Amino acid sequence: MTVNEKLEQLRTLMKEENIDVYYIPSDDFHGSEFVSDYFKEREYMSGFTGSAGTLIVTMEKAVLYTDGRYFLQAEEELKDSEIELYRDGSKDVPSINEYLGAVLNSKMTLGFDGRCMTAAKVLGIQKFFESQEKEIQIQAAVDLPEKIWTDRPKLPDSRAFVLRAEYSGKSYLDKLVKVRDEMKKKNADTFVLTSLDDIAWLLNIRGDDVKCSPLVLSNLLITRKQVIFYCGTGEKDDKKLSNIYDYLISNEIVVRDYFAIYEDLTQIEGKVVLADFDKINFTVYELLKDRQVIDVVNPTTVLKAVKNQTEIKNMREAHIKDAVAYVRFLKWFKEQMKSGQQMTELDVAAKLLEERSKMEHFVSESFEPIVAYGAHGAIVHYSPDEDSNCCLGNQSFVLIDTGAHFLEGTTDITRTLVCTKCSEEERQNYTLVLKGNLALGSAVFKQGTTGSSLDMLARKPLWDRGMDYNHGTGHGVGYLLNVHEGPNAIRYRVGSGKNISVPMKEGMITSNEPGLYLAGKYGIRIENMILCKKKEENEYGTFLEFETLTLVPFDLDAIDKSLLSAEEITQINDYHRRIYHTIGKYLSDEERKFLKQITAEI
Amino acid sequence: MTVNEKLEQLRTLMKEENIDVYYIPSDDFHGSEFVSDYFKEREYMSGFTGSAGTLIVTMEKAVLYTDGRYFLQAEEELKDSEIELYRDGSKDVPSINEYLGAVLNSKMTLGFDGRCMTAAKVLGIQKFFESQEKEIQIQAAVDLPEKIWTDRPKLPDSRAFVLRAEYSGKSYLDKLVKVRDEMKKKNADTFVLTSLDDIAWLLNIRGDDVKCSPLVLSNLLITRKQVIFYCGTGEKDDKKLSNIYDYLISNEIVVRDYFAIYEDLTQIEGKVVLADFDKINFTVYELLKDRQVIDVVNPTTVLKAVKNQTEIKNMREAHIKDAVAYVRFLKWFKEQMKSGQQMTELDVAAKLLEERSKMEHFVSESFEPIVAYGAHGAIVHYSPDEDSNCCLGNQSFVLIDTGAHFLEGTTDITRTLVCTKCSEEERQNYTLVLKGNLALGSAVFKQGTTGSSLDMLARKPLWDRGMDYNHGTGHGVGYLLNVHEGPNAIRYRVGSGKNISVPMKEGMITSNEPGLYLAGKYGIRIENMILCKKKEENEYGTFLEFETLTLVPFDLDAIDKSLLSAEEITQINDYHRRIYHTIGKYLSDEERKFLKQITAEI
To answer: Sheet containing A84-87: which strands, arranged edge to edge?
Structure first.
């Protein structure tokens, strides 16, 4: 079936349902960053395979919104269909809300599957309509593409497993006490938790339902007396539940069918409900209408971000494993380059995966690898695929942003490597980014300092020279969970409302990833993971600092020493010495010799 | 009458009114930082003369809350009365709300003059009672001390004047259009404006109703059709109004009695009202109860913070005048010191005032001068008076934080001067503070950056060494208005709700004042005023920077050059060269020679 035929079928269904405009987002029912194939309705209906995009269909027209990283790909993929590409963020392109405002007149109906839209998103659309004084009907109880997509993939059914205490560091019941404490503080009777990383963290379970994210497709209700877990069929013999069912029951968790939450929500006890409107979907929100619902950052999110001692110990081990694999990869990479062997971006990604897979307790990559040679590096979210894949040349940089999940935790590292040789300008720019990374990594700061203060340190070397990078400096990283997790973040905008910059706390693990991107030329990013720790407590207060968990050398060939202060040179040498002493012992003689070279004092 | 006798009279009145606890704050009816004598009920009733404090009287007990800077003074002043001193912020001292919660049981009545409490403060108290599930009655329509204070000063009646266009830079009517635009955006029918600096700014009037703040005691109502100014008797022949009445009428402003706003508020048209709950008093708030009141930062506050081109040009001139006076003072100071002349803190303040008063268009000091020798310097808000005044010795530092109002604008400057000689440790600490001042003053940053990012630059040299100062790094400064004004501020805590850190904008003028305080030894603060300007716009975005308006040399005797980078040395030398070239021409030969010496290259 062509895309245009699918759209015609959709319009027929829209007419039957009296829907004037139908909206197809890219989300799953949980507001996840990455989704499994079952949820890719937008891709199925539009033919556009990028991860982010919104398809809006009226009786006369179909438009696809996507962002800068996908403009070229979307043009290509949409060219045989009637769908018009709307380049989100470009001048003269209305925002999605403005577009909806333009195609919907009062009394008309906007339709979508309310389970695929967060409550916050729909409330935003409704608020926009109100500001335009338009009375738009919302029909959110329809999944029209479902009726067209006859060969739709099934819901993911990976076998969930229990994350043992040696990895989780804290029992489910201990965590539950903390969550119920937060509920009490807000006088809440019920807490509706639908974000998959929060559920996995709280229950100490993991799965494989989303690529690169070891999550379990599920929902959770916590009342004052009960905890109800909605997953699979809810039966012990369901493959999904088979390895965790007894564990759940022994913890007095009620297990029900994945979809049963939509029935249960109407009849839960209590009137005050906690829910995160950026996480619960609109259908859940509507079912809570008669309650007093308090919009909060999920208490689990806040608790999860502060790693416990076991998680911290394990995270250090995960980074040692990751570094051993990475150094082996680097040796291969530098040798290949030296000997003039042809090598593609995908080859690089494959080699890194190969080395990581050999390490004990490797689970999976923690996100789609970014290996970006030359100009590809300037495309911030570039990931190589069969079409874009290119051979590495001997000029410029290759930017490699990859990570792994181990049972001991999650890594996320970017190194920018010289391909044989680089220019003076390239070395200068690399060094400016490195200065930012060093400044943030060595920061000392008072308790109460937020990511917006810390961000300045990473950007200063660039800002001083009128340069910048158009992304955050740091994101929280989950423990064998999402590689991006809040609430900790390092960015200069302070946010607002419940998404305001939060103070950096002992135990939080965040990325430190300044960059620089020269369109059409190359990209630079240097990313370490940093653990927030207490430094000292004295008459001036409590001071915190970071420990860099990542243990992979910077590329010495890319450094312009003349731009570094004596202190920065010491920082680099100390870091490289620490790497050698920490991971040298896990390497063969030859590998260790290589490591010695690439960590040589400068 | 003794304080105890006053309290007994108060208790008799409390009984008559069925009030169990009476609360006397230090505020005026406008939430002002400084208040005129009429409003000093707390001082009259308690005998404590400090600027900040709260007196809480029950039938059995009277307690006075004040903060750290006043502990010693309060002890002394309260010692002959029954009042017990509660050291706010000390361990084991309950917060004011907690204390109220302890002395008030359900159904009891808390009394105060609602005009002397901001709406936000009372709402906070009420919320606290709610969280304790206590039903406390509020009686806010009483001013009991009024009946005791027979020789109470009159309301201030200074003659207001119009600030001419050459100083204001923008007409009242142009400003009104902007304010009404903001009202429209919020769909507001009425804007209630009671903060005195906002009113003076909007109407382009000034007065002398509050010491060091050229304000006019008044209220303002802006509806869609009308602007009503409540001031004095509202009659042309009132001294207060005599010089501005015709101006007001010609601008179609209705003039009414100062107190008439309390009658008018009940009958204004329209249902949606804008008001800043941190500024309007509780009585005003209660009169708006039947309306839909939107709590906002006053739109005038936001508009006022971005100075126009005329104000900026004038502010530069004001700082030149201030610097000329300051250099003359410095010459006198250094000569006195050298010749071993006795000199007290008050002498220093008087000499500075004398030099400033000689400058054209001098209006007044912009706040009570802080001249703090040695250990006094470590008391952050110390101001010398007859009791505390001491002679300057020849050791350590004197910290001088002073400022002036000119028709061309307002200055606020702190210099920390060596008294003859200082120790190596003192020089090191001075230099660390200076490094912070230089880093902030030379910052380059992207549009959208808030004070919380910028704050890091000023604190980094101290934080790196486990030191800190317990105050903000910068506050907005008004134009011939309050020396402290929002919303711009430089501090690492990001705030919340409507008091969140705001982006620094072109035209904002802010202080840059890192410090360091060693209790019992000395204090260091170095404060310049900085103007935010555009630096460049390029492919990475718009970059901003600061121009340092203050033109007074740092004390070279206090600098430890070995702690400075080459860049910092250049910054100091460039700054001193700029000072010499800008103000040298206004000085006598001898003064210029002195300036040459104190701005010599290092």
So the answer is: A84-87, A62-66, A54-58, A21-24, A109-111, A137-139
Residues 6+ apart with CB under 8 A from B463: A444, A445, A446, A543
pLDDT in tens, A318-348: 999 999 999 999 999 999 999 988 999 999 9
Token couple for B113:
């003059």
Compute the distance between CA of residue B420 and CA of residue B436 in angstroms, rounded to an integer.
Answer: 25
Per the CB < 8 A criterion, the answer to whether B424 and B326 are in contact is no
The pLDDT tens digits for B386-414 are 888 999 988 889 999 999 999 999 999 99
Backbone angles phi, psi at B294, to 5 degrees: -100, 120
Main-chain phi, psi angles of B525, to 5 degrees: -145, 140
Name, in order, each residue with C-beta under 8 angstroms of B83's C-beta and a sequence gap of 6 or more. Answer: B3, B7, B46, B47, B48, B55, B62, B63, B64
Three-class secondary structure assignment of A37-88: HHHCHHHHHHCCCCCCCEEEEECCCEEEEECHHHHHHHHHHHCCCCCEEEEC
**The length of chain B, given as a count of residues:** 602
- The shortest CB-CB distance from A453 to any of B455, B468, B536 is to B455
Q: Nearest C-alpha of chain B: how many angstroms from A545?
A: 10
Q: What are phi and psi of A355, to 5 degrees?
A: -65, -40
Distance of CA A360 to the CA centre of its chain: 24
**Residue B193: C-alpha distances to residues B158, B201, B265, B488 (Å):** 21, 12, 12, 20
Phi, psi (degrees; rounded to nearest 5) at A91: -60, 150
Q: Which of B453, B536, B538 comes nearest A453 by C-beta? A: B453
Contact status, residue B583 vs residue B595, Cβ threshold 8 Å: yes
Is the pLDDT reported for residue A381 higher than 90? Answer: no
Give the integer Cα–Cα distance in Å for B513 and B525: 6
* Cβ-Cβ contacts under 8 Å for B273 (sequence gap 6 or more): B188, B189, B190, B191, B192, B288, B291, B292, B293, B294
Determine, for residues B536 and A453 on separate chains, whether the beta-carbon distance falls below 8 Å.
Answer: no
Average pLDDT value over all residues in chain B: 96
SS3 for A441-471 is HCCEEECCCEHHHHHHHHHHHHHCCCCCCCC
Compute chain A's Rg from CA coordinates.
25
Q: Which residues contact A194 (CB under 8 A, 6 or more apart)?
A: A29, A30, A31, A219, A220, A261, A279, A280, A281, A284
User: What pLDDT score was predicted for residue B68?
Assistant: 82
Identify the CA nearest to B578 among candidates B522, B518, B528. Answer: B528
C-beta separation of A14 from A57 below 8 A: yes
Q: Do A446 and B463 touch (CB under 8 A)?
A: yes
Contact A540 B466 (CB under 8 A): yes
Show the beta-strand stretches assigned E in B195-286: 205-206, 218-223, 227-231, 254-256, 272-275
Which residue in B378, B371, B373 sits closest to B414, CA to CA?
Answer: B371
Q: Which two structure tokens, joined as six digits, stand for B586? A: 């206004």
Burial A122-133 (b: 16+ CB within 10 A, else e): beebeebbeebe
Say which residue the tokens 């158009």 belong to: A470
Partners of residue A494 in chain B, C-beta under 8 Å: 450, 452, 494, 500-501
Separation CA A444–CA A535 (nearest Å): 8
Q: Which stretches within A397-515 are classed as H helix? A: 424-441, 451-463
Inter-chain CB proximity B540 and A452 less than 8 Å: no
> Rounded mean pLDDT of chain A?
96
Q: B455 contacts in A (CB within 8 Å)? A: 453
Query: Residue A466 has which token pair?
Result: 């009128």
Q: DSSP state, B207?
A: -
The pairing of strands B218-223 and A205-206 is unpaired
Cβ within 8 Å of residue A576, ≥6 positions away: A553, A554, A598, A599, A600, A601
Asked if residues A345 and A376 have their Cβ atoms less than 8 Å apart, the reply is yes
| Pairing relationship of beta strands A528-538 and A541-548 according to DSSP bridges | antiparallel
Q: Is the pTM of this model over 0.80?
A: yes
